[in-house]
Design goal:
Belongs to the glycosyltransferase 2 family. The chain is α/β, with parallel strands linked by helices. The chain is built from 8 helices and 9 strands. About 30% of the residues lie in helices and about 15% in strands. The strands form 2 sheets. The protein has a 7-stranded mixed beta sheet, sandwiched between helices. The chain has a two-stranded antiparallel ribbon with strand order 1-2.
Length: about 290
C-alpha cells in the first residue's frame, strides 16, 4: 500500500502492521487448533457418592481458557439413587438411558454429544479426567482419530484386583490375536475420538464388550489409532463388574466381530501380518 505525503512528495510505502493499535497484542495461538470443542461422556449407575469428585476433576476452566468449549454429559443408566440429580446440580447435562448396559449408556451419550471430540471415562473415580489436556496434546499432535488409554502399567497394580488384571490381560491377548491393532488394553474405558467417526462404526454391543468393540472397529475401518499409558486409580464405591459373566460375553463378542469383519472384507483395509502397538513417546498421562 502507498500514500502521498505532502504536496508533490513521492509516494512512500506504508507498513500496515505499524499502524496496528498500540497495546493490543496478537492473540496467542490455540493449544489445540483442530479441537474447538469436546464432549466428556460419562456413563453412571448408582454413583451418587462418586459423581461430585469425578466432575470436579474435569479441568473445565483450563480447557476453556485454551479456547476449547466443554460439554459434560452424564448418562444415568436407571440409577436407584440421586446420581442424575447430583450431576445436574453440578452443571452436567444428564441423559437418561433406561436400557441397562455399559454400551447402551454410551450409545445414548454419543447421540447427545455435540463436541468435535468425545472424551470418555467411568463415574467410579478410576480414570484421570484431570489428564484430558495431556491426552488432547497427543491426540492433536499426532492428528489421530481414536486414542485409547492403557491402564495395565506396573505403577497401577494396586488400583485393580489381581483377578481383574489377569482377566484384562487375557481378554487383550485374545483381542490382539483377532484384531492386531495398536491396543494393549482392550478393556480400558477412557478414549478420545473425533465425533465424526462414530457414524462410520458398526458397534453393536450393549454391555461391557462395547469397550473392545469400539476400539477394534475404529482400527478395522482404517482410522488413525494409537494408545498411551495413564494413571489408574482405586475405585470408589461398589464394584459392579462380574468378571466371569462379562469376560465370557466379551470373548463371544470378539469372535462374532471377527466373523462379521471377514464378511465385509471388501469394505475394510487388509489386516497386516503383524502390527506393533503405537505408544506415544511422551509417556504416560497423569
Amino acid at each position: 500500500m502507498t500514500a502521498t505525503i505532502g504536496p508533490g512528495a513521492p509516494e512512500q510505502p506504508i507498513d500496515i502492521l505499524a499502524c496496528a493499535p498500540v497495546g493490543e497484542p496478537a492473540p496467542a495461538p490455540r493449544r489445540w487448533p483442530t479441537i474447538p470443542s469436546i464432549s466428556v461422556v460419562i456413563p453412571a449407575l448408582n454413583e451418587e457418592e462418586n459423581i461430585p469428585h469425578v466432575l470436579a476433576t474435569i479441568p473445565r476452566a483450563l480447557l476453556e481458557a485454551e479456547g476449547c468449549e466443554v460439554e459434560v454429559i452424564v448418562v444415568d443408566n436407571l440409577s436407584h439413587d440421586r446420581t442424575a440429580e447430583v450431576a445436574r446440580e453440578l452443571g452436567a447435562t444428564v441423559v437418561l438411558q433406561a436400557a441397562r448396559g455399559y454400551g447402551n449408556a454410551y450409545h445414548a451419550g454419543f447421540a447427545a454429544a455435540r463436541g468435535e471430540v468425545i472424551v470418555t471415562g467411568d463415574a467410579d473415580c478410576t480414570y484421570p479426567f484431570d489428564a484430558i489436556p495431556e491426552l488432547l496434546d497427543v491426540f492433536s499432535r499426532r492428528s489421530l482419530d481414536f486414542l485409547n488409554t492403557n491402564r495395565l502399567q506396573p505403577t497401577n497394580r494396586g488400583a485393580m484386583k489381581p483377578s481383574h488384571t489377569i482377566g484384562n490381560l487375557l481378554l487383550t491377548l485374545t483381542s490382539r490375536s483377532l484384531f492386531p491393532g495398536p491396543f494393549r488394553d482392550s478393556q480400558s474405558g477412557m478414549w478420545v475420538f473425533r465425533r465424526r467417526i462414530w457414524s462410520h462404526l458398526d458397534v453393536r454391543s450393549g454391555g461391557m464388550a462395547f469397550s473392545q468393540e469400539i476400539k477394534n472397529e475404529a482400527w478395522l475401518k482404517g482410522f488413525r489409532c494409537a494408545e498411551v499409558p495413564i494413571e489408574y486409580r482405586k475405585r470408589g464405591g461398589v464394584v459392579k463388574l462380574n468378571a466371569f459373566r462379562d469376560g465370557t460375553r466379551n470373548v463371544s463378542q470378539l469372535a462374532a466381530h471377527r466373523l462379521r469383519a471377514d464378511r465385509r472384507k471388501r469394505l475394510i483395509r487388509p489386516l497386516p501380518s503383524s502390527a506393533k502397538p503405537v505408544v506415544d513417546p511422551a509417556g504416560p498421562a497423569h
